[in-house]
Write a sequence for this structure.
């Protein structure tokens, strides 16, 4: 099934480009093109809503079950510490790579685009970051509110409390553990149903953006897009190289196992859309459920490698387009600011643009420069999302290796079994 789904997604991607380009060249008025694109996005929006429907109960169920079967709070603290250490290191590397490449390649110099006036509004709502808000936002005031808004980090915090409490209660909590195990299996089965709609969503997403923007925009922004994707390729090489360094030859198998969620994230420009499939791919690769169910949701809040590289890259690109020269000290300060603020926006739509909008004024760079990015942001988001999947999959695999705990791998071509005892085999 996995091989067929990957093939269907690829076919949908190609057909989406063809159909979108055909519509774009049909001499429709711009408003009419936007209207047609809006019809296509209905299918994509429905698919992404279905994915969001799955994520909260899946994160809660897998994490609580994993902690309950772990039976050792010391192991939980160890896994958490190693995960955060990896995330901070990966964040620093991603941000630094973006900063170095944009200074070497200088895609904003002589870009040839019409630079917006500094007084123009980007239309992107800025995120106000304070340390107090960031810390208090981690803790849910209501688990139902957190689940309704897909606040993954808050769901993780609540799940940690529940999992540890179940371990402390012991035998009396066994019925809850069995119920949570059953919830996980049900949600994985729901995921299998939802994923059958993925090729339709991919076709609709690609058709909509190509119909509205056309392929010519890729040539107009060719230098910027090419430079950014070169950076992503280098980041992929670093992440996969790190995987080989820490887990050895099995890293090549890891890439094979995650190809479907990677392609799904790229096609839909959504890391979130790939979350359930990434969890299943790691499961089949041999990462224990108790490790993957903890590292992966935490990574979606703290370890979006592609998005972080884009933040420094895009910020300096805008400065270059306006002819603003930043000193080395200012650029390093920007890197550190983004290092902190990027951790506080999990679950925010178009999070990268929101963080950039909040950061630019700190360095006297016109926020209107974001208008240069909006037209091609979808194409850039495709690469960012795929990179986020690779970064989090590698993180989970490495942490599992450090824990000395790999399960026997399953063939990547088959659907994961949905037997009631499945979650217990990863305890």
């Amino acid at each position: 099934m996995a091989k067929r789904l990957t093939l269907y997604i690829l076919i949908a991607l190609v057909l989406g480009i063809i159909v979108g380009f055909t519509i774009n060249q049909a001499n429709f008025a711009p408003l009419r093109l936007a209207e047609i694109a809006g019809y296509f996005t209905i299918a994509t929006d429905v698919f992404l809503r279905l994915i969001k429907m799955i994520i909260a109960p899946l994160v809660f169920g897998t994490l609580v079950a994993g902690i309950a079967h772990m039976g050792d709070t010391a192991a939980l603290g160890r896994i958490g510490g190693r995960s955060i250490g990896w995330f901070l290191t990966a964040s620093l590397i991603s941000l630094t790579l973006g900063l170095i490449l944009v200074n070497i390649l200088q895609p904003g110099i002589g870009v040839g685009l019409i630079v917006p006036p500094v007084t123009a509004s980007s239309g992107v709502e800025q995120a106000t970051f304070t340390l107090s808000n960031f810390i208090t936002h981690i803790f849910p005031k209501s688990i139902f509110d957190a689940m309704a808004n897909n606040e993954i980090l808050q769901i993780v915090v609540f799940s940690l409390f529940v999992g540890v409490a179940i371990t402390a209660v012991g035998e009396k909590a066994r019925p809850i553990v069995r119920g949570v195990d059953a919830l996980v299996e049900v949600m994985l089965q729901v995921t299998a149903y939802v994923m059958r709609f993925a090729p339709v969503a991919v076709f609709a997403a690609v058709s909509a953006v190509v119909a509205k923007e056309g392929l010519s925009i890729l040539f107009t922004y060719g230098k910027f897009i090419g430079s950014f994707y070169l950076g992503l390729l280098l980041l992929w090489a670093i992440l996969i190289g790190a995987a080989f360094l820490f887990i050895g030859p099995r890293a090549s198998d890891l890439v094979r196992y995650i190809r479907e969620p990677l392609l799904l994230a790229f096609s839909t420009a959504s890391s979130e859309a790939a979350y359930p499939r990434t969890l299943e791919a790691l499961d089949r690769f041999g990462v224990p459920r108790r490790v993957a169910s903890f590292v992966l949701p935490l990574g979606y809040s703290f370890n979006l490698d592609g998005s972080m590289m884009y933040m420094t890259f895009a910020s300096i690109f805008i400065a270059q387009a306006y002819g603003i020269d930043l000193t080395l000290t200012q650029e390093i300060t920007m890197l550190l600011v983004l290092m902190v603020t990027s951790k506080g926006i999990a679950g925010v739509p178009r999070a990268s643009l929101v963080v950039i909008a909040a950061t630019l004024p700190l360095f006297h760079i016109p926020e209107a420069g974001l208008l240069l990015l909006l037209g091609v942001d979808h194409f850039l988001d495709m690469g960012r999302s795929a990179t986020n999947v690779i970064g989090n999959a590698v993180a989970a695999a490495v942490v599992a290796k450090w824990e000395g705990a790999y399960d026997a791998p399953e063939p990547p071509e088959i659907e994961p079994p949905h037997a009631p005892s499945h979650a217990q085999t990863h305890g």
Notes: Confidence is low (pLDDT under 50) at residues 414-427. The two ends are 27 Å apart (CA to CA). The longest helix spans residues 30-70. The CA atoms of residues 100 and 218 lie 23 Å apart.
